[in-house]
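Students often ask why inverse folding is considered easier than folding. One informal answer: many sequences map to the same fold, so there is more than one right answer. In these notes we will look at a single instance of the problem. The structure comes first.
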């Protein structure tokens, strides 16, 4: 004997019902089979809405009823041969008329009791089960239809009636045992009170019907046929990477469903667990898939088996000095809630006994406030307790697994990943069985939270970065190219998916949560919205995506000014733009502190020496206890290029122009030429070495004549041509002694300076070619021979790779 239950989507239309028929045919060939069905998909909701509209005096309930009739008639016409159709059509018509009569009554009275609601909803399963039984018969399967209301008896708590098992089991056994038929079809969800009044078992209750039948009859198995191939590690609608759990224990399945895994209605497990009857979750649309086997003990080794979430929760807190040490407070609280039929989902109490906190469904909030404040009115009046505090808009997340108790560190990991993503935890609870760790969080954070937890516990090696890129000029477009090139490698080798969710330039912006295709981002951006930086940031904040990173590949001050907002939303900032790190020390350190506070990163390796590991090296030295005594560096790719290529044969201006054309300069090359860019860089290095340094404390021995620094960039080139003699004289002064010109930055003893120097061939800085940069770190560990970092310090490709590397670094703790 076996029980097969088919859910709403499995029987949503004629096509699906035929799939069900094929599955049942195979199953019934093997043993006695009970088939329990839900209403056609969506019908229960439509019935309920009809009742609610009618009660509100809204005549549009008639449209709902017309739709219900139409869908059922269509199903009959598609399933039942014309010759046998008329009796089934008239059965459907008759029951639809009954629904209409009831709804007309509700409309006339403008009142809808729970009892009437149950009555209205019961027609969904009554109709579907009768149509399906007829279909089976027409396919030559001798199916017997049986009204579950004659078998399952409940109390009178309409809407969510409690099963009276003694009577129910007796009725079920009396009917089936000894009944010679081999195949039965029954409506799920519905039952009746002892007086024969229709009741329902709660939304999603058809699963329960199957388990009640299976339990009473000691079935070999109960199969829940639905639209997914099993119970999954998380709700697949929230977590695209969720995967099937092949084996799970009753307890685990119960916890997961209790905390929101809708695939199985929570009370379902109880009657089958008692009898140790295996439950299978199977997919009607992929019957060959293994599915999930729910049984006494799970076979899998994963400590965490699944994650689920319950939405629309509220937290009720009872606080006050009057609670300390006095027994009975919590009893009175729970009695008050139970008396009002309010289900408590989660409980926490502070060890000081100063407060007790419970989570309940949001719909119960006003009732809870009323009954709890009434229960404690004396204590509230005498100031021993505060009136009940309520916080709404919350959700509960639960990690579930029988084996969690033998794996330390799970809660720590859970809170770390939530913290890293800026998810604030309002309350936590862990059952003493350690089968479940629950956290109450803001409803807005659920999707992100459940995805990062899923990543942390089930995709150890498969992570997603959600990346926003602002600035798609030279460096930005190279970055996008590199991301596209590396896509397969990152996925396969690093199990990392970099999902570019936002791209913007000064004119257009584009945000797409599922990811922008990198093969044609240019066209897509063209079609995007008008750029509005504030709106871009607001959207990024509202999306609240996990492992979010904002890459600033501009040289723009207004972009640098939004980092603070981003970091406060736990969005990491990777800046190629130097403006923020080179702004006031107060602002620079505030950004670093915000990144720490909101568990994200503010990284700017490319601010100095493009992709060269300059800041990273410095950070490593300091982290491991070294102290920087002196830094000597050539940090301007532009100036290097210029002085390496200038010997008077071509004008100084034309060499500068060439550097700009080849993409080594800042958008305004004067920032390179007058040393400002180098000052910023040495200041950033000094700050990263632990010094509090401001721009105006840096000595700049500029070699540029004042006349070149006025007006526009065009004026600047013209003025340089005028000053050619000045530049030639500078060159000659060095060349005559066989020395080279280098624009050197120094940080020594807390002081920084930048300026042109004559470098002789024996010096470390002499052999520096093209656009290379070099940094010499003199430290306690490297006192005489410095630690040297040298290589290309400019260029779109290397800079983009440096930004890329910082983006990867945001995934490090
Ligand atoms: P039925 O109509 O067959 O009873 P339900 O809609 O009640 O189906 O339940 C199946 C749905 O439950 C799936 O389509 C899926 O979206 C959702 N679901 C939520 N959490 C989980 C989970 N952990 N595993 C599988 N499905 C889940
Ligand atoms: N049809 C009912 C509902 O939608 C019961 C079920 O499908 O399990 O809640
Ligand atoms: Mg269901």
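Output (designed amino acids):
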């Amino acid at each position: 004997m076996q029980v097969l239950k088919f859910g709403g989507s499995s029987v949503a239309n004629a096509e699906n019902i035929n799939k069900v028929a094929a599955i049942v045919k195979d199953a019934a060939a093997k043993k006695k089979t009970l088939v329990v069905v839900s209403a056609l998909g969506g019908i229960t909701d439509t019935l309920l809405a009809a009742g609610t509209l009618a009660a509100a005096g809204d005549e549009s309930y008639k449209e709902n009823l017309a739709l219900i009739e139409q869908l059922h008639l269509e199903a009959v016409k598609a399933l039942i041969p014309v010759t046998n159709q008329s009796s089934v059509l008239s059965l459907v018509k008759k029951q639809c008329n009954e629904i209409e009569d009831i709804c007309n009554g509700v409309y006339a009275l403008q009142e809808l009791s729970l009892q009437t609601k149950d009555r209205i909803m019961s027609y969904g399963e009554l109709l579907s089960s009768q149509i399906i039984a007829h279909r089976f018969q027409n396919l030559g399967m001798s199916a017997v239809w049986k009204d579950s209301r004659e078998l399952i008896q409940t109390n009178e708590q309409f809407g969510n009636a409690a099963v009276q098992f003694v009577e129910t089991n007796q009725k079920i056994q009396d009917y089936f045992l000894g009944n010679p038929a081999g195949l039965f079809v029954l409506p799920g969800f519905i039952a009746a009170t002892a007086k024969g009044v229709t009741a329902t078992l709660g939304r999603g209750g058809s699963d329960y019907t199957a388990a009640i039948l299976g339990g009473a009859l000691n079935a070999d198995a109960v199969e829940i046929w639905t639209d997914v191939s099993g119970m999954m590690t998380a709700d697949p609608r929230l977590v695209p990477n969720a995967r099937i759990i092949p084996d799970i224990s009753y307890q685990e399945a119960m916890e997961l469903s209790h905390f929101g895994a809708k695939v199985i209605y929570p009370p379902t497990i109880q009657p089958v667990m008692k009898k140790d009857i295996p439950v299978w979750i199977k997919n009607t649309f992929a019957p060959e898939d293994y599915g999930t086997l729910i049984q006494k003990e799970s076979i899998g080794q994963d400590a965490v088996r699944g994650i689920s979430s319950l939405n629309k929760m509220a937290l009720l807190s009872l606080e006050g000095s009057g609670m300390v040490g006095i027994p009975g407070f919590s009893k009175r609280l729970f009695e008050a809630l139970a008396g009002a039929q309010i289900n408590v989902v989660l409980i926490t109490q502070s060890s000081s006994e100063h407060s007790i906190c419970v989570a309940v469904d949001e719909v119960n909030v006003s009732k809870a406030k009323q009954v709890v404040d009434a229960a404690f009115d004396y204590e509230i009046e005498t100031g021993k307790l505060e009136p009940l505090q309520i916080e709404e808009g919350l959700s509960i997340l639960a990690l579930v697994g029988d084996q969690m108790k033998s794996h330390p560190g799970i809660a720590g990991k859970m809170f770390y990943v939530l913290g890293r993503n800026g998810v604030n935890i309002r309350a936590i609870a862990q059952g003493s069985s350690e089968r479940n760790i629950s956290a109450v969080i803001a409803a807005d954070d659920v999707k992100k939270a459940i995805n990062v937890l899923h990543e942390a516990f089930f995709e150890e090696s498969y992570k997603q970065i959600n990346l926003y890129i602002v600035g798609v000029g030279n460096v930005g477009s190279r970055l996008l190219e590199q991301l596209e090139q590396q896509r397969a490698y990152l996925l396969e080798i690093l199990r990392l998916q970099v999902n570019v969710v936002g791209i913007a330039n000064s004119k257009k912006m584009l945000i797409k949560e599922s990811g922008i295709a990198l093969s044609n981002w240019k066209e897509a951006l063209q079609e995007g919205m008008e750029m509005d930086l504030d709106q871009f940031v607001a959207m990024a904040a509202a999306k609240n995506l996990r492992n979010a990173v904002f890459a600033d590949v501009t040289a723009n001050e207004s972009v640098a000014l939004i980092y603070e907002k981003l970091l406060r939303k736990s969005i990491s900032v990777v800046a190629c733009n130097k403006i923020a790190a080179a702004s006031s020390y107060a602002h620079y350190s505030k950004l670093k502190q915000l990144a720490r506070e909101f568990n994200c990163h503010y990284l700017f390796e490319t601010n100095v020496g493009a992709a060269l590991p300059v800041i990273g090296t410095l950070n490593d030295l300091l982290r491991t206890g070294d102290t920087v005594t002196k830094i000597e560096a050539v940090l301007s790719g532009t100036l290097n290029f210029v002085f390496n290529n200038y010997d008077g044969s071509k004008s100084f201006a034309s060499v500068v122009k060439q550097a700009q054309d080849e993409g080594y300069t800042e958008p305004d090359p004067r920032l390179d030429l007058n040393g400002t860019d180098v000052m910023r860089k040495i200041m950033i290095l000094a700050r990263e070495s632990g010094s509090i340094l401001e721009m105006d404390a840096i000595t700049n021995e500029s070699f540029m004549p004042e006349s070149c620094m006025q007006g526009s960039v065009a004026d600047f080139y013209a003025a340089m041509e005028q000053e050619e003699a000045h530049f030639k004289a500078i060159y000659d002064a060095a060349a005559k002694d066989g020395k080279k010109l280098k624009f050197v930055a120094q940080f020594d003893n807390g002081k920084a300076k930048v300026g042109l120097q004559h470098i002789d061939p024996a010096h470390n800085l002499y052999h520096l070619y093209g656009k290379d940069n070099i940094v010499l770190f003199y430290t306690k560990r490297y006192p005489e021979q410095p630690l040297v970092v040298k290589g290309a310090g400019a260029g779109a490709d290397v800079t983009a790779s440096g930004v890329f590397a910082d983006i990867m670094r945001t995934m490090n703790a």
